[in-house]
């Protein structure tokens, strides 16, 4: 749901103060209210956060709720469900007033979007091209409705994809075989 009556610049968005618990993304200059996540989506994001901790990713490089400024016709900032930062990006964000990855910062290494019903086009199409243009090495689309995970690897400016279903074990371009199946992920316990 768009709430701005006029388009915002990126600077206006970054300077805006949100005094509520409502989350917003900036899409093509419009402030969009993000609906609350479903319990399943929250469980999946939390499960993956804990999973990557167990895989040895340091907590200071894992983020839930980080904003990523992406390129587009108009200013756009996305809030993925989970991100893994590079050491360089984690250092760049140290002490920042706002957890926002701006265009002058290196991109996150991995971004995960858990698809919400009715948001398939945004996650599969728009964010795919935005994250590729931003140079994010690995992008996961976790789709509870389709019971599948699409793992995209950035190769020479475009994403190459691998789709995992049923009992398939996930393989990450950054981390290799994960010893994690689709069934384990969607049970998220």
Notes on the protein architecture:
- The protein is built from 5 helices and 13 strands.
- The longest helix has 16 residues.
- It is globular and about 45 Å long.
- The model has no long low-confidence stretch (mean pLDDT 86).
Keywords:
alpha+beta; 189 residues; 5 helices; tt1808, chain A
CATH architectural arrangement: Alpha-Beta Complex
Largest sheet: 6 strands, mixed
Mean pLDDT: 86
> Which spans have pLDDT < 50 for at least 5 consecutive residues?
none
Top-tier CATH class: Alpha Beta
- The CATH topology annotation reads as tt1808, chain A
Total individual domains: 1
- CATH homolog superfamily: tt1808, chain A
Radius of gyration: 16 Å
Coarse structural class: alpha+beta
- DSSP strand (E) fraction? 25-35%
Q: Please give the alpha-carbon distance between the first and last residues.
A: 31 Å
Helix content range:
25-40%
Shape: globular
Count the E strands.
13
Strands, helices and their partners?
Blueprint: H1 10-15, E1 23-27, E2 30-34, H2 39-54, E3 62-63, E4 67-70, E5 76-78, E6 82-84, H3 87-93, E7 100-101, E8 110-114, H4 120-134, E9 138-143, E10 148-155, E11 158-165, E12 169-172, E13 176-181, H5 182-187
Parallel strand pairs: 4-7, 8-9
Antiparallel strand pairs: 1-2, 3-6, 4-5, 6-8, 9-10, 10-11, 12-13
């Amino acid at each position: 749901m768009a709430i701005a009556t006029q388009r915002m610049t990126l600077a206006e968005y970054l300077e805006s103060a949100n005094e509520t618990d409502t989350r917003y993304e900036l899409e093509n200059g419009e402030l969009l209210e993000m609906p609350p996540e479903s319990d399943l989506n929250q469980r999946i994001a939390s499960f993956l956060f804990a999973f990557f901790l167990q895989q040895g990713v340091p907590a200071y490089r894992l983020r839930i709720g980080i904003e990523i400024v992406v390129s587009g016709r108009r200013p756009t900032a996305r809030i993925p469900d989970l991100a893994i930062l590079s050491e360089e990006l984690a250092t760049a964000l140290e002490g920042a007033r706002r957890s926002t990855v701006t265009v002058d910062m290196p991109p996150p290494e991995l971004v995960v979007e858990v698809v919400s019903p009715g948001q398939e086009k945004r996650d599969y199409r728009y964010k795919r091209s935005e994250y590729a243009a931003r140079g994010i090495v690995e992008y996961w689309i976790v789709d509870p409705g389709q019971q599948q995970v699409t793992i995209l690897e950035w190769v020479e400016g475009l994403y190459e994809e691998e789709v995992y279903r049923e009992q398939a074990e996930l393989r990450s371009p950054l981390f290799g075989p994960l010893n994690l199946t689709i069934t384990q992920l969607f049970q998220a316990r």
